[in-house]
Amino acid sequence: MDATSTFVIIVFLATAIERTIEAVINPWFDALEKGKYGLPTWKPGPLVRRVVGVVLGLGAGFAIAFGLGLDLFNPLLGNAGLKYALNTVQAKTFTGILLGGGSAPAHELIRYVEEKKQKAGQEKDKAEADKILAQREAAKGA
């Protein structure tokens, strides 16, 4: 199998897993928030929703990778000049991570970078404002 078809299979399976997990956990969390089916009322925060989604996604990815014996990681590496290829368990583990991670890790990384950039921009603006105020105060004192 070539790298392109492997990539297409990974994207398809990762998307299918991610959408299935969302379809399963959203009604479950809604039922918890409304106290349906005799469940205690509990409003989980966004972190809990993310963690549950990632854990279930990784579990599904590992189940598919090990259950079907899929090694989609080594074909992606191709002839990358590695001294040793991954053994079967390592390859299935990485395949499970690729499948189960879906797009969530990429979204989390992008959001983290955006938050850091925004925070750095705010700190830079504050430092520039402080510098201007200090110059004005120095000019008034002179």
Topology, element by element:
Elements: H1 3-34, H2 46-68, H3 73-77, H4 88-101, H5 104-141
Helix pairs in contact: 1-2, 1-4, 2-4
Which characteristics define this entry?
5 helices
Q: Could you describe the 3D structure shown?
A:
By secondary structure, the protein is mostly helical. It has two domains: about 5-100, no CATH class; about 105-140. About 80% of the residues lie in helices and about 0% in strands. The protein is built from five helices and no strands. α1 crosses α2 and α1 packs across α4 (about 90-100). The model has no long low-confidence stretch (mean pLDDT about 85).
How many H/I helical runs? 5
Q: Using DSSP, what is the number of strands? A: 0
Class per helix and strand makeup: mainly alpha
Low-confidence regions: none
Largest sheet properties? none
What is the CA-CA span between the terminal residues?
76 Å
Helix content: over 70%
Mean pLDDT across the residues is: 83
The share of residues in extended strands comes to under 5%
Give the number of domains.
Answer: 2
Judging from the principal axes of the Cα atoms, what is the shape? flat
Order of helices and strands: HHHHH
* Radius of gyration, taken over Cα atoms and rounded to an integer in Å: 24 Å
